[in-house]
Every structure is written in structure tokens, then in C-alpha cells.
Write a structure and sequence with these properties.
mainly alpha, 2 domains, 5 helices, elongated
């Protein structure tokens, strides 16, 4: 794992540069220019199979490579967001530390926690405490109180 003092590998630097450039308006203009030139060459080549194959192959290769760049960038950004959220959870008094690294939980556990948060979200407005800070850890206590009231 890289830290701010660890130098980045050449592949990481290259991927970051290509990602930044490919999302720019210059990259769009280059791609548009290539398509316009390709279209203009069509009549000179008689709209041949080779002419069609050229653009199909080029766009397929670029699309194939871009899928990996996009996934790499999304993974990196998701990890950064998770780290920031983990820091907020860990530093917030009363927050449930069980939610740190929630992205590693299995689907059933995540669904159960989601249901608990839905219960939590619906509980306090009924009680006139919509701005009250609360944790998912309070759900069993809230559910028990609601059962006693019924």
C-alpha cells in the first residue's frame, strides 16, 4: 500500500496520467478528429471492409483498455471514500464502530444493518426528535420500547 512518502510505480503514474488526460476535453477533441478523418477517408477507399475494420479495431482496443482504467480509478476512489468514512465513524462519539469496514460485510449482514437504519430513521421523527444523534446500536433498545408501548 502506498503512503505519501512511497514513490509511485511507473505503471501507477502512467495510469493516472492516461486517466486524467482521457477525461479531458482535449481527448474528446482528438477522438472526434480521428472519427472525422476516418469519415473523410471513406470515399477515397470506396468505403471498403478495411476502412470499416480500421475504426472498429481501434475503438474496440481503446474501449477494452479504458474499462480497466475506469475500474482502477473507481477502485481507488472507493477505497479513499471508505477510508474517509471509517475515519469519521471512528472519531464520532456514539457512532457504532461495527460499521468500520462495512464494505467487507456479507450481504445478509449488510441487509440487516440497512433494515436497522431504516428502523432508526423512522423512529425519531415519530418521537419529535428528528435532529437527535443516534447509532445503529440503539435499534434493539428502540424496538423493545416500541413493543412495550404496543
Amino acid at each position: 500500500m502506498n503512503n505519501p512518502t512511497t514513490p509511485k510505480t511507473w505503471s501507477t503514474l502512467f495510469a493516472e496520467l492516461v486517466t486524467a488526460w482521457s477525461g479531458s476535453h482535449q481527448a474528446f477533441n482528438v477522438a472526434l478528429g480521428i472519427v472525422v478523418i476516418w469519415l473523410m477517408l471513406g470515399p477515397f477507399t470506396g468505403f471498403s471492409d478495411t476502412w470499416q475494420l480500421t475504426i472498429n479495431t481501434g475503438t474496440s482496443v481503446i474501449t477494452f483498455l479504458m474499462v480497466f482504467l475506469i475500474q482502477r480509478t473507481q477502485n481507488h476512489d472507493t477505497r479513499a471514500i471508505q477510508l474517509k468514512l471509517n475515519e469519521l465513524i471512528a472519531s464520532a462519539e456514539g457512532a457504532s464502530n461495527r460499521l468500520i469496514n462495512a464494505e467487507d460485510l456479507d450481504d445478509e449482514t449488510m441487509y440487516n444493518l440497512y433494515h436497522r437504519f431504516q428502523t432508526l430513521a423512522g423512529t425519531f421523527p415519530k418521537e419529535g426528535q428528528s435532529n437527535r444523534a443516534a447509532s445503529v446500536e440503539e435499534i434493539p433498545q428502540i424496538e423493545e420500547e416500541e413493543e412495550r408501548l404496543l
